[in-house]
Every structure is written in C-alpha cells, then in structure tokens.
Amino acid sequence: MLTRRWGHGSAVLHGELYVVGGHNGNSGELGSAEKYDLRANKWTSVADMSCSRVGLGLATVSGNLYAIGGLNRSVDHSLKDHASVEVFDPKTNQWKHHSNMNCRLVGVPDRILIYQTFLVNTNFFRRTNPGVAILQKL
Fold first, then answer.
1. Which residues are 88's β-sheet partners?
2. CA-based, 20 to 30 A from 10: which of 58, 66, 109, 125?
3. Domain boundaries along the sequence of the chain
4. Distance (Å, whole) CA 71 – CA 7
5. Measured between alpha carbons, how far is residue 80 from residues 17, 74, 86, 107 in Å?
C-alpha cells in the first residue's frame, strides 16, 4: 500500500482492491483512498473522501463504492461517530455525500449488507431484537 493504515474499509470493484480511510498510527484518521491492480501489481491513489474516518464499512453497489459510518476526531479531539454515507464513482474519481443514516455506526464491516437498494445492519438489534434493521434506502 502507499499509505500505512489500520481500521480501514476494503472492497473489490471491477477487479481492483480498494482500501479507504483508516488510521495511520501516527497523526490520525485518514480520508485517503487507494486501489490495487492485481494484473499490474501496482497501488495508485484515488480521490480522498470528504472526511477522514476509521472503523468504516466499504461496500460495492452498482459499480460504485459506499463508505459507511466510522469515527473521526472533532475539533476538541474527541472521537465522533459518523452517520454519513459517501459514494465513490470510479469513472469520475470523485466522492460525493450520499445521505445520513438514521443511526451512527462504528466497526461496520462485519455488520452491513446491501440488499437490493437497502443498507441493512444485521447486527444492530442482535441482543434485543433478532432480525435486521434497515438503516437507509440507497
């Protein structure tokens, strides 16, 4: 990778591995993104998200990437949960704010499922309500 990171989101889109956000272990949360081309054995940078985040989820839907939830530092240096969803279009190499979920999510990767056009959290009510919670219509 071009940038050392942990707590990032990762997903495969069009045969390339995308790694987005995370924490670099030093200066803080990252908004940067990069992709790995297996055929060329090469990492390249892509556009940065509008906000830095760690512990985000990353999903592919209809040829785009969706960055979901996570944490970043606020002005007072405390960690703040994100309810925002950003979408990356690889054709234009641009991230755009998509929407806000009705709840904030951190540590998203193992709990998010995209079903048709719904963002579903399969773990949100696990302790008290078996089943799923629909967070956002995409």
1. 65, 95
2. 125
3. 9-109
4. 10
5. 27, 6, 16, 13
